[in-house]
Design a protein that fits this description.
CATH architecture of the largest domain: Sandwich
Number of strands: 8
Number of domains: 2
CATH superfamily of the largest domain: SoxY domain
Order of helices and strands: HHEEEEEEEE
CATH class of the largest domain: Mainly Beta
Number of helices: 2
Distance between the termini: 52 Å
CATH topology of the largest domain: Immunoglobulin-like
Length: 157
Amino acid sequence: MSEAAPALSRRQGLGGLLACALLGVGRAHAQALAPTLDLSLLYRPFTGDATPSPARVTVTTPRLADNGFTVPLSVRIDSPMTPADHVQRLVLLSNRNPRPVIADFDLGPWSGKAEIATRVRLNGSQTVIALAQTSDGRWWQGTAEVEVTESACMDAA
């Protein structure tokens, strides 16, 4: 004959729910207070003293990602992609990943379109930045905010 598990009292059940709720609020509060980098610190190694213009680059990603392991992301740059006027470089940056450079693409007139589609790993809610350098040396920038409910990256050791 097996014994039945003891039933929880209403007070124990409510206490457990309150503890879970406080743990969730504490985690969200800690993520909100986590340090984020100044975006210019991210792009300066690529652009030097130039400040990218916030135009021509469209970053598309879900506003809410259930987990950060495979977040779909696409980038489109408004460019004719001719030999005289084309995108030559596209850099994806993250302001909260342990390694901020997500990807670095070389493009040219042979690409046909200035577009990429990929999946990225994200360490929590953050801003994803796409920097595009055109053949005339100018830099363009687009950003997207992503809320991640389960982080994918661990801090670098």
